[in-house]
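Raw record, unedited: Amino acid ABC transporter ATP-binding protein
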Amino acid sequence: MTSVLRAESVRKVFGSHVVLDDVDLDVPQHTVTVLIGASGSGKSMLLRCANLLETIDDGAIFLEGRDITDPRVNADEVRQRIGVVFQAYNLFPHLSVLDNITLAPRRVHRTARREAEDKAMALLERLGLGKKAADYPDRLSGGQQQRVAIVRALATDPTLLLLDEITAALDPELVGEVLEVVRSLKDDGMTMVIATHEMGFAREVADQVCFLADGKVHERGTSAEIFGSPKEERTQQFLRRITEAHRL
């Protein structure tokens, strides 16, 4: 299958601290890759490097075969092809929901206002937020704000969608509505890389699961392989801890 995102021997260091250590990753088109691992394992940093929010110290990252970590590459042009949703919603508080969503299409992609608004409204309706278009972010629940952030990422027709712990800041009762959106995107064939602590969700949506620890990918495989019969002791220990924590 065609690779949308590929990382080869990626290394990221802060001082003496190695955050990513010789990381390889291959994300085929129309698949979902889920990154699991404890906090500080390198999941979020890998996503930040993929979106060129951080520069890597060694290795290379490719988007549809193009080396986007080449210093000659225009990072802003690359980011226009990648949608990102973070744990924090990062919505502009002084803009309405509709204006939050249409800002990038209009200002960056030079889409006509009417076209951008029509598309935004179609996405909002699909995600059950059509009636919230004129509201400001502080009038929305956390789950609604996160869904708006996802719509904003989708409004530019990204080649790749990166989701970084998008349910971590939500109350448990709001998690389900956000995860349902991601399920629908998977059904549509959206190529995604997701960092998450939601193991049940990861098991359900992932085509590929990568377990990270200490900045390394210790094990990768299908959802059934990683959650059903992990081979590496570090993976087994991590999943046991998660299982035990949910039993408490």
